[in-house]
Amino acid sequence: MTEEVTQAVGTSLATHFLTVGGFLLAVFAIARLVSEKRPPSNTVAWLLVIVLVPYVGVPLYLLFGGRKLRRLRQRKRPVVLHLSGIPAVSPAIACLPTAHTLSATGAGDPAGGNIVRLITTGEQAFTELESLINQARHSIHIATFILGRDDTGRRIVNLLAKRAREGVKVRVQLDALGCLFSSRGFVDVIRRAGGEVVRFMPVIPLSGRSSANLRNHRKIAVFDQHTAIVGGHNLAHEYMGAQPWKKRWNDFGAVITGPAAALLNEVFLADWAFASRQPLETLQREIDPSAVRIEGDSALQVVASGPDMMGDPLYEGVISMIQEAEQSIWIITPYFIPDEVLLRSLIVKARAGKDVTLIIPARSNHPVTDFARRHYVRQLRKAGARVMLHTGRMMHSKAVIVDERIGLLGSANFDLRSFFVNFEIGVFLYSEADVRAMRVWAGELLRSCVEPKPEPRPRTRLLGNLAEDLSRLLAPLL
After folding, report:
1. How confident is the model over 63-78, as a mean pLDDT?
2. Domains and their CATH numbers in the chain
């Protein structure tokens, strides 16, 4: 009997300590959550998860919930684009509200003297990448969120190893979560050839440099500091390849030659210094001033966004674009989860008679985001906006086009994670010819789109309504 009593007391004490510990962790998580001054919807979503299911919510928040953490800011210096000799743009462009807004956030001023060549297919993306790797004379800097362990990834890795053996400085930065299965042995051939490979923010529990939430979603490739590829393409078979593939995703990007490529190289070096623990000042000594030279007449503004920026420049830039629109706003994105400000801004423009067009995949690779977007899509359509569903292949393209005057391309989706959490890269285009080319591409994309079917009556879609409501409730966490 004494032994049974002892066991019961021990079990009771253990349960008590676990309860108290869980309560204290929940209090800590809530205090940290409130102190971060997130958007209200995001705060409420996390509060519900922490309070209603604390044994699940607290660990999830500690692992995935951090945003612009102060310690991360101290370790990773803010991206500051400060290259000298950048050609100025015309006063008409410099005075645009969007350009001025972005400059005020610390994103840097627009740069003139560039050439832009749009990338609209996965085959073109692979051809451009392979060609520029082969042509590089001094340096190859590549950052990607995903490196596939497939024929595309293997071919790129082997080619980079070949160039490293030939004396070209090869640096490859892989996001530790997105490249979880390809950031070690798969790329050792590059290391053995003399190239360098680093992982960005390893997902290691209790590590001071770890966070599963703060991911580097930037896709940047810079060659000889003078030519760059930027957009949504990852280095995997789904995104690009030498041969056509009917299941390949529809993606979008651009090859940029000129001063803006040198600015993209600065962004890469800032990320590399953090991931490799090399002094940024040492890396900046490699910058070649002769790489900053005029090649064309395109005006671009390079914008880095994420925890290494004091504000949210991409978010503010998109809001400015919407507010500046006089005729049309076209948004192409795989995931559409706006906050209240973005949604209301689009609704107001649609009700004012502007052409607000949203192109999204009929079915994305993340079903929960498809349920979460339904409410926002419904509100837009009620306001008079046009929503088109891209059919067939998964559409992973990301772009915003306003009045054929301003275009935005890069790595960011039109969702809360891209605007407020991830490290992202965007390029704003201000030259009429470039923006018109983007509009032509978007028009061609419409050929593979259909309008949404009329929604069934509420009583006939009870499960769908429940899934939609739950997904929308958790949308700020997606």
Report:
1. 55
2. 2-65 (no CATH), 73-97+108-301 (3.30.870.10), 313-477 (3.30.870.10)
